[in-house]
Amino acid sequence: MTVPLTDKILILDFGSQYTQLIARKIRELRVYSEIMPFNVSLENIKLFQPKGIILSGGPSSVYDEGAPLITSDIYRLNIPILGICYGMQLIAKQLGGKVSRADKREYGRADFIPDTDNPLFKDMSKRSLVWMSHGDRIEKMPEGFVAIGSTENTPISAMAHPKLNIFALQFHPEVAHTEEGLKILSNFLFSICKCNPTWKMSSFITWSVDNIRKDVGNKKVICALSGGVDSSVTALLVHKAIGDNLTCIFVDNGLLRKGESEKVIDTFERHFHIKLVFVDARQRFLDRLSGVTDPEQKRKIIGNEFISVFEEEAHKIEDVEFLAQGTLYPDVIESVSFKGPSAVIKSHHNVGGLPEKMRLKLVEPLRELFKDEVRAVGEELGLPEEICWRHPFPGPGLAIRCLGEISQDKLNILREADAIVLEEIKKAGLYRKIWQAFAVILPVKTVGVMGDERTYDYVVAVRAVTSVDGMTADWVRLPYDVLGSISNRIINEIKGVNRVVFDITSKPPGTIEWE
Ligand code: XMP
Q1: Does residue 432 sit within a domain?
Q2: Structural domain tally of the chain?
């Protein structure tokens, strides 16, 4: 979909870990932003019609062989430019300045003194903490540039060419450690690029619905609902566009959380009146998983079985031409087609292969959105809070939290324990502050004593982590009383468990899931 907005910012990606963060911060300021690879053609840049261009940071040095460059025609487009870190060094080098390798990498907080007369630093404090992370620095600015800010170690920490409307920062305004970073970005957007804050989820819904109608016409669409926020919002948008020509398929694989399938049926069928095919495939999955202990084997079986079940059900619906999928913007920019084949691609866990196998065309209405925007769209469409804010839940579900061999018995224990963990965390008001919280059932039994009796029962582990994207994570310092209630309730209410432990491992070295 092309977003029909005139106020857009283009971010050229030089490989910084913060590139997506820049895009998100700009959207938070209600201006639409898109990321393109640094080597996108000038023609495509013009076609996008950005009101401003940001050159991201990156891991390279401008002196590296094969360091990423942009065509210098970009500086003559008469579009304001903001270079960040590597982006700054690139501007300096390409426009005739001198960049030198610093003796040692400057990394961490620095006290920045901005020239508050410059529009980029309008209304900023006289001194402000910023986040530095660079190896090279500017020794001599290109002609026409003036220094507009310094730190003790880096005399030229910011520079500008007032006539060309080019600005550059040695530090990262997009990260939370830069105290007035959002103000700097806001100044760039509104004072320099003259953008209006036009990016709103309500308008997104209107365009998206129009687009789906145009793309799909009167053809039929199917959508695999998982109960998570992405597939739920996808289904709601498509339903808003084409009504009963959408059929959702929800597969209960027996590996879902307590009450999950009832919730999905209640929400989508009863509340939103969406055509829903509910497939009870619990026994089928359990049979296929019988005796399997290897985690990757479990994943493979569950993935393949899901495709088979889904295909069977989809074939029962006549004339289906499209498959609606909840692909998000971060998936798009991480993909091979975006970065080129040389990029290191994060391995995706999700069940893939459906569209190719079934020869369906894709409808992906969330391709432009970040996760927080998907949640905002969900809220706007009336999706219950419980689904809108649900923690990520892995495709293989409880199978990879029931360590070792899976049995109905162990799954039942796990489902109850998991429900208690979540209830207590919600009760303590911590749910939204946590990325994922869950229970794991271990394949060992330990000795305990209950009343006068010796017990020999399962161990349940509790895991709670904070994370931004699941790639790294830290364990949550849950208050002792919350841990206490979780432990008491699990042991008192669930037969078959006599010990609860808490996982205090971050990622890395641990993973979030136990399998
Ligand atoms: P790990 O355990 O690799 O998890 O640190 C990172 C994130 O991915 C989720 N995860 C999965 N999601 N299928 C999925 O759809 C999977 O097989 C899978 N394995 C892990 C995990 O819950 C966390 O959010």
Answers
A1: yes
A2: 3
